[in-house]
């Protein structure tokens, strides 16, 4: 290839003294690329193993912790026995097994599902907005979903049976996501300022709607709304899990399916289109999935914000921005984070169940602030 | 050297890319007015013209991004809006001026994105080889592990060029690919574009540097206010009269001695072009020819009418390297 060798030869001769050009860059590049890829895949594998181990440990500890303490060995034994394996000790306490299966396990599973949904929703939203600060809680999609769910609580609707709350949350979330998307984007991209300000506006309206619904509701509904708004996994039962699980699994599967196209979208809408991506369809799919995941998380557990911001960001720092890794790793990371956060919420204050949304906001708020400043610096302004 | 790019097999007898009476209007603003253009396999066509002439819009129309208000664009004889996006992505690649990236991908990953249209085809097996080759071609191999947003403007342009080449298109649309590049990389990028044309690709490139356009294009299309003002071989189209009129600034076209090469220079008055250094550095003859070549009272209009790129001052560079030859 004479074209390429010519300029390189020229520069090699000219710049040899200054040492600014790597000698034989193509040769080193050739052998460095596979090595770099190996290092990266090792890092990716490491991250997944780490997260998986962390999740199992946290889940076992969390399930065993509470007023009725069940040792880790007995927790594992109980699970294995349910799976038909006669291994490990059963809980020694007469009510141990029942407590695990009726109270603890649904809660742990719900925490994992909601965490995965929130983190995946965040990663998706950031991908489609092309902005690392987009997150369902920050831009107001969560409060849109919350309004939908609150309507059901206050008016006692049940037209979709056990799915009514989730269904209305989905409707509210979808409406808000489209609204935010339509207003915050211009010229194919979303500026940070526009996005955050849109979030302020949407959250304000959502907050007002929630306040009005709280005002309308009777005492029971009011109390339910207040605690639900703070975000809590308290009182999770299997039927709730049965509603949330399929939504979350569909959402994550869809996100994984779209991940390659999200990578291309980061080149910008036109360039992605030049590479064969139907950008319009991708956007709509992403918005529907974000609404689905947010609704799944919000429906029974209230507003738990910042998970979708913190988790994808940390994953990106660890293994880079490629969505094929980012999406599943975020899902797993979100599950770990929320399982851990729920453990803290249940145990930090004896005999009290702290609202988990409060905890995540306590950590996520400052993190968001730091992220804004960092983005501003790297973008050279409020771009 | 078998590059296997560009679906040579798909090649049809007619032009690879064809614009037929294309009009683009946004309300009252007429961006393109009745543009006809044929681009054949094996040729490089340069689109030139002043700012706002409609070059980028025409490129967007040719790429299938923009639907013309009226008229049609045919790729391989088929309407560009009638073929699927995936097919389009395997046939034509576009290098845009804007090279933003939302997330900090590594350069090699960005180049590899150019391979995505070939996913699920036999060509996927060549991904690694093609990526390595195009990165070497664009001279970004040593930047492979760098995060794209940390690159300089010129490095980004070269990485984008590598990505576009990795797409192995039969039709290559480049919007000012050399705008951010130094002289060596400008020459390298256009040499590569020529090479692709030599291998059968149809190449359309928007350029501001008319000397570059003259050197590398088989045909030059001069656009002004949305209309084609001239189209044909550089020697025929790039005339002082047409360019001076189109750019609203006196432009001089000279021939590099002993060659057919055209050098296009904006006419500068000595009053506005650093007289001290020019007089000290130049020979006596330099000043004399310069004044002889001076064709108009352009002092007042020079700044406004000047359309070259601000960063690079291509005119200055060209004068520096060629004026000596011109005189002797």
Quickly list its features.
heterodimer; A: 383 residues; mainly alpha; ABC transporter involved in vitamin B12 uptake, BtuC; two-stranded antiparallel sheet; 2 strands; disordered N terminus; B: 328 residues; alpha/beta; Rossmann fold; 4-stranded antiparallel beta sheet; 13 helices
Structure characterization notes:
- The complex is a heterodimer of chains A (383) and B (328).
- Chain A is mainly α and 383 residues long.
- Chain A is 77% helix and 1% strand.
- Chain A has 15 helices and 2 strands.
- A two-stranded antiparallel ribbon of chain A has the order 1-2.
- In chain A, a hairpin with a 2-residue loop joins strand 1 (185-186) and strand 2 (189-190).
- Chain A starts with a helix and ends with a helix.
- Chain B has 328 residues and is of the alpha/beta class.
- Chain B folds into 2 domains: 8-238, P-loop containing nucleotide triphosphate hydrolases (Rossmann fold, 3-Layer(aba) Sandwich), CATH 3.40.50; 245-327, no CATH class.
- In chain B, a hairpin with a 2-residue loop joins strand 9 (219-224) and strand 10 (227-232).
- In chain B, helix 3 packs parallel to helix 5 (153-166) and helix 4 packs antiparallel against helix 5 (153-166).
- The longest helix of chain B has 16 residues, at 183-198.
- At the A-B interface, helix 1, helix 2, helix 10 and helix 11 of A face helix 2, strand 6, helix 3, helix 4 and helix 6 of B.
